[in-house]
Specification:
The protein has 330 residues and is an alpha/beta fold. It has nine helices and 14 strands. The chain is 35% helix and 26% strand. Helix 3 packs parallel to helix 4.
Length: 330
Amino acid sequence: MSAPRIALVGAGSMGRNHARVISANPDSDFSVIVDPFEEVGRATADLHQTSWVADLDGIGDVDGVVVAASTEYHYDIVKELIGRGLPILVEKPVCPSLEQTKELIALAEKSSVPIMCGFLERYNPAIIQARRMMGEPLYIRAERHSPYVPRIKTGVAWDLLVHDVDLISHMYGSVPPANVNVEVGQFHPSSLPGAEDVIDVSLRFGRGGLASASASRIGQRKVRSMVVQSLDTMIEVDLLRRGVTLYRHTHITDPDDAGAGYRQSTEMEVPEISGDEPLAAQFKRFLGLIDGTADVDAERLAILPAHEIVERALAVSRESAADESESAPS
């Protein structure tokens, strides 16, 4: 069986990373790059010894498409690809609109077209290891802070927060949160009106589980961290350095020591982390969707929970802003 022919749409910052991974995978045939800007698209195509075209009309006969164009173009691109019956890996978010995302997912299901979203952190070896080690989560805290990037048009909810609420949702069994509270701030003069620069979200899940997630693009260094607490353990995850540390606090009773009564001890486990680069592991999953070895239905259903939480958080923020406006003195 010949290797599936893959097209890449978008040769920008993230697209170039996808190009590197597609080109390096021996089980795929990197057929074409689609980008409206010839200087960018052709340079990336030449680097990876593939062809460049300006639009989707020129992609030819391919077996799957990776969409890494700017988020604001996802809806039209993905809709056209579904109409062509082509399996799709689309960068997160599918669309910066829950309504549009639901429309595309429903269309993919109706058309029996495999679709997956680029929730890259699911494939982070540190997250995979942490999930093996953790007990039932009771409280999860995530931080995802970055320096400002002018090219990102959406706010940090769709650009950054969506990764962490996806992980949190999975750790709580993909059930919708019972309650969502949110605070947002827009601070940067280059941000578009309504595009938040900072967002803090708190979530309550069934059985009392809590989570909080903070996303910011006014940080001066990248932070990608998560803490998962259960009754017996706490796990710290550094998603950038792919490190995991488990802590277990114990009380040691000493009946012969009448003065102290007990001693405290904190045990630490620092497992060795191994695994593929997340983007490469994600692409392997996409190839599995193309050849039928991965569960197409499960992958499609796993897209919505994070999108629903982000949309709900932004709706809560809008309602809060409206209430404050109405109560402000005239």
